[in-house]
Amino acid sequence: QLQLVESGGGLVQPGGSLRLSCAASGFTIDYYAIGWFRQAPGKGREGISCISSSDANTNYATSVKGRFTISRDNAKNTVYLQMNNLKPEDTALYYCAAGSRVSLRTSRLPENYDYWGQGTQVTVSS
Q1: Nearest CA to 47 among 72, 16, 18, 81?
Q2: Looking at residue 1, what is its pLDDT?
């Protein structure tokens, strides 16, 4: 069964940090670009970061650049999103997704991805 499972979300104060994990099972992530998306209540799904399959190049949305870092550990079949200096506007349900034909140029489009996780909630509040 092909599956992505996110973990690491929770409640954190503004300025705090969290590390999200995206663990794949049933397939190897070596040949997939992995993207992180988030969706706040009443808003659309926003692509915030992606790491490519071939050379581990990365990109970030302007809203998170300089605060979030995406990385991958192919040996563990897992991708991470380190989130620092969190702000209340980062509050959302965070999803990871895998795409075999995703490039960094097309990585913000949810329809380009093949597999999705169920999401992990991140709440930033004092």
Answers
A1: 81
A2: 84
